[in-house]
Amino acid sequence: MSSVLADVLVVIALVGALVLVHRPFGDYMAAVYQSPKHLRVERWIYRAVGANPDAGMRWPAYLRGVLAFSAVGVLFLYGMQRVQDKLPLSLGFRPIPADQAFDTAASFVSNTNWQSYSGETAMGHVTQTMGLAVQNFVSAAVGIAVAVTLIRGFARSRTGDLGNFWVDLVRGTVRILIPVSVVAAVILIACGAIQNFGDIHTVTTLTGDKQAISPGAVASQEAIKDLGTNGGGFFNANSAHPFENPDGFSNLLEIFLLLVIPLSLPRTFGKMVGNVRQGYAIVGAMAAIWFLAVIAVTWIEYAHPGTAAQLAGGAMEGKETRFGEGNSALFAVSTTMTSTGAVDAAHDSFSGLSGGVLLLGMMLGEIAPGGVGSGLYGMLIMAIVAVFIAGLMVGRTPEYLGKKIGGREIKLAACFILVTPALVLVGTALAMALGKGRSSMTNIGAHGFSEVLYAYTSASGNNGSAFAGFAADTVYHNTMLGLCMLLGRFLPMVFVLALAGSLARQAPIPVTAGTLRTEKPLFTGLLVGAILIITGLTFFPALALGPLAEGLA
Amino acid sequence: MDNSSWTNLGRTMWAALRMLLVLTVVAGVVYPLAVTGIGQAAFHDKADGSLMTADGREVGSKLIGQSWNLPGTDRPDPKWFQGRPSHSDCDPLATGSSQLGASDPTLVKSVKEAKEQVAAFNNVPESEVPADAVTGSASAIDPDISPQYADIQVRRVAEADGLPVAQVRKLVAEHTEGRTLGFMGEPHVNVLQLNLALKDLVSKQ
A248 and B179: CB-CB below 8 Å? Predict the structure, then answer.
């Protein structure tokens, strides 16, 4: 079978599996967040914490919960890394330096999982499982909770009650993320991913060399790393490491895990607002953009432009033999489009134009399909903008799902949209102007600029993948990227929750003949157009200096 | 902020800390231990890293690439099938790739040199050298090579080990793994497994 035909079958299998689970899994998640009943283990948790699970929260209280929980998470994870040498099972690793510990804590709490350390020589067992992996779960649960709150804003009316943050956080973790992770982790072990708490194990090879074999609770962390669109690798090589991603099947499973929650949440949305076709319109826009990018990157990688790739006879630099060009391209698109940032190939070594598509995927706001929760709320904000544009064209007050999009709503949406570009462009410009960008480049010229742009895009968009030639472990970049990650995560959440509050207060407007039908394919097209135009205009100049200049040279 | 908002904030922070600790127990202790229990019970060898043994001792992991140089040198040993180039000399404590772009002059130079070296070492024309033989992987510990790279090494290995070419070729064919379920991933040859089989063959001679 030719590689291309095999790749087509891989995409068909992936899409088929996602379509199959979309309905039951989306419905299940809707039930999780709507059910009035608490599980016994959840009651224990609420009692231990002293939270009343049946009290509704207004948006400021909900936001206070999100921010307090995340702030405590940053401090806890920072502290754990700083005293790592005192913890058991630390494998003899030293404490992480202050700037890097801040960067890593900000990174994992903000669901970015940008890494300026190498897991295999930096993080002990306890830091990995009780520090980093815990944030993999809870940062994902926070993301879904905020998305669910925005859905409630549309679904509820004449109320300030947006649900209870503690309940949403616990249910997301206990009822969704942990069960799926257990199943996925066991399958990964069956493929060959490791799962142990041993020591670094030295063997003598047949040629008489010594080789150190790394230990770790890898499979359990790998499962949630992908499912929660976190992306922080147990090892430096991330999902390219054979202990994280042993074969062709595990690779496909990991891509499935990246996409399954972001692509099922629109169903949850449709179910909760009482019209599943609204969800189809949203998922259609997500899938269309993802699919176009998959075709583009796969095609470019097979064509392997670039002097070195042409000379080698294939774009295999930075790719694993067992995955090849096609499976690596599929993973790369899925990870950048979901805000995951796990990599099974070196994005820095992709051809210039492919790198540009990956960058664009993050610049679109990671909404196709985006991170868990963050993808859906990002896409719903874009839907509001699309409705607003359509309203301007026909001269009618815009409305979406029976809620009026007035001055306050569109201002909040606009603020949301401005956060990422501001952080990316100001961050990149500052780094370049201060000379901090150039001193961290591995590559030269346009590709070197792409490394800096990629780093600030990845951090601000909470992606976490890298053009890893960029030497990020400096005090300047650790600090600036850490700030970009925190602001890029939590400022948008402020606007989303405020928006949810303002929508929930409104009384619904009845549907009339003049209402824009947002469940129709026409609206999906309008939505995709709005996304491409807004992002394109914002980022085109920066893209022209980096990947476009390199790709067209 | 007035006094009551400060109290509110304090109360929320306190609840947040307790929530984090409880969830750390659930997701950071119970979950990984449960997965370890199931994994170790059902797939013990895999969970421990798929270690391979020869002559009663561990010689590496099936999943971790190794270098096959002449002892104490950085020159490839003609007796063994060679893996892909690795900038870290296959050190599992330094995984990751070169990160060089597809047009980078350093990469162009290293591909050119690798191509000449592989062609001369195996006595084949440069046009027969596949891409994986002259490029670094993403992990620097890629355990596999393409079937094409294995093929061009057959003659050289057979000669160095004093084995019939047909027998070595058969060995490569036996150790070529297809795509998982016929369509996932790419066909590959695991270098450690192949070399272990080769060692058996040589010792039987």
Answer: yes
Model pLDDT for residues A61-75, shown as the tens digit of each residue: 999 999 999 999 999
Assigned token pair, A158: 């004449």
Distance, first Cα to last Cα, chain B: 86
Of B98, B100, B184, the CB nearest to A248: B184
- Structure ipTM: 0.96
- Amino acid of residue A246: P
Torsion, Cα of A337, A339, A341, A346 (10° steps):
20
Which residues in chain A (503-522) have CB-CB distances under 8 A to chain B?
none
DSSP string, A431-447: HHHTTHHHHT-SS-HHH
- Judged by a CB distance cut-off of 8 A, whether residue A88 touches chain B is no
Closest approach of A225 to chain B, Cα-based (Å): 13
CA distances from A364 to A56, A349, A417, A519 (A): 34, 22, 10, 22
**Count of Cβ atoms closer than 10 Å to residue A278 Cβ:** 23
Q: How far apart are CA A289 and CA A363, in angstroms?
A: 13
State the Cα–Cα distance between residues A223 and A221, nearest whole angstrom. Answer: 5
Provide the sign of the torsion angle of the four alpha carbons A297, A300, A305, A311, taken in this order: positive
- Peptide bond preceding A547: is omega within 30 degrees of 0, i.e. cis? no
pLDDT digits (tens, 9 = 90+) for A418-463: 999 999 999 999 999 999 888 888 888 899 999 999 999 999 999 9
The interface residues of chain A toward chain B in range 324-353, judged by CB-CB distance below 8 A, are 324, 327-328, 343-346, 348-352
Cβ atoms A423, A484 nearer than 8 A: yes
Q: In this structure, are residues A238 and A193 in contact, taking their beta carbons and an 8 Å threshold?
A: no
Of the candidates A179, A154, A388, the one whose C-alpha atom is nearest the C-alpha of residue A273 is A154
Kindly report, residue by residue over A186-203, the tens digit of the pLDDT.
Answer: 999 999 999 999 999 999
| Residue A237 to residue B132, Cβ atoms within 8 A | no
CB–CB contact A178 B31 (8 Å): yes
Give the angle A455-A456-A457 at the CA atoms, nearest 5°: 90
Query: Do residues A138 and A173 lie in contact, with contact meaning Cβ atoms separated by under 8 Å?
Result: yes
Taking the alpha carbons of A372, A378, A382, A385 in that order, is the dihedral positive or negative? positive
pTM for the model stands at: 0.97
Chain B residue numbers touching A64 (CB-CB < 8 A): 8-9, 12
Residue A269 DSSP class: H
| B6 to chain A: closest CA residue | A64
Residues of A within 8 A of B90 (CB-CB) are: 211
CB count in 10 Å sphere of residue A52: 11
What radius of gyration do chain A's Cα atoms show? Answer: 22
Contact between residue B165 and residue B155 where contact means Cβ atoms under 8 Å apart: yes
Question: Considering only residues 262 to 301 of chain A, which have any Cβ-Cβ distance to chain B shorter than 8 Å?
Answer: none
Asked whether A195 and A219 are in contact (CB, 8 A), the reply is yes
Short-list A450, A428, A419, CA closest to A543: A450
Rounded to 5°, the CA angle A108-A112-A118 comes to: 65
DSSP state at residue A247: S
**Residue pLDDT, tens place only, A79-102:** 999 999 999 999 999 999 999 999
Which phi and psi angles does A486 have, rounded to 5°?
-65, -50
Instruction: Give the CA distances from residue A79 to residues A87, A105, A131, A449, B199, in Å, rounded to whole numbers and listed in that order.
Output: 11, 9, 10, 34, 50
Give the burial class of B35: count Cβ atoms within 10 A of its Cβ; 0-12 exposed, 13-18 middle, 19 or more buried.
Answer: buried
CB A270 within 8 A of CB A276: yes
CA angle A6, A8, A10 (to 5 degrees): 70
Which residue of B15, B49, B183 is in closest CB contact with A50?
B15
